[in-house]
Amino acid sequence: MPERLLVVEDEKHLAEVIVDNLEIEGYEVHLESNGDLALTSIRENPPDLVLLDVMLPGLDGFSICSKLREENNRVPILFLTAKGGDDDRVRGLSLGGDDYLPKPFDLRELILRVKAILRRHKWTESPPTTGQRLQLGETTVDFATYIVKTHEREIELSTKEILILRFLAERKGEVITRDEILDKVWGYTAFPTTRTIDNFIVRLRRVLEPDPQNPRYIHTIRGSGYRLTP
């Protein structure tokens, strides 16, 4: 069964071109040109991915994304917009968007981003190959609830923290590069840099390691990346 995409775009010619090219790739594609109608459509018949313009009649794209995330609706969202500044891009991603493609764009790049987002979403929504729980000494990580439990405390990890840890756990004992983590968790076109990965690793060590300065589980492999050793 083909994956179902919703294109929300009020520029008629551009919308038709996007729809035609996505259908050629084998997707089932639906089109909305109004923000309010798009939000209703997503709620009533959730697609596998939303390609969402920011400037729309009715609700704008940022408002649609914000409302969906407030409702804990995790449908993947790819913003398509002429507002290509860094501030707008950061805002879109901060609201819970999965990627942000400024206009004008190459249709080949659009297709690549769609495929990357769908691939990543399938992984995040599938059960971890390691099982639901990861044991690190006296610390237990629950991938379903994002909860870390020790004999002293209980901490909830963020979505990105749990996904990074899950990726490391699914390939435990292997050296994983920062670029691999960035691609798996954020997507190959993501705004964050590899330095972002280092910051997340620091936070994970504060939660998981008995001594974060001398990590027992998450090891830095200089010049390469990270390795998890349970």
Fraction of residues in H or I helices: 40-55%
Identify the CATH architecture of the largest domain.
3-Layer(aba) Sandwich
Tally of domains: 2
Number of helices, where a helix is a run of at least 4 consecutive DSSP H or I residues: 8
Q: What is the fold named in CATH at topology level of the largest domain?
A: Rossmann fold
Overall pLDDT confidence = 92
Can you write the helix and strand succession as a string? EHEHEHEHEHEEEEHEHHEE
**What is the tally of beta strands?**
12
Classification by helices and strands: alpha/beta
Radius of gyration: 19 Å
Main sheet properties: 5 strands, parallel
Question: Order of strands in the sheet with the most strands?
Answer: 2-1-3-4-5
CATH superfamily of the largest domain: Response regulator
User: Any idea of the CATH class of the largest domain?
Assistant: Alpha Beta
Give the oligomeric state of the chains in this entry, treating copies of one chain as homo and distinct chains as hetero. single chain
**Residues in β-strands, percent:** 15-25%
Stretches where pLDDT is under 50 for at least 5 consecutive residues are: none
- Which geometry do the CA atoms define? elongated
- Could you give the distance between the termini? 39 Å
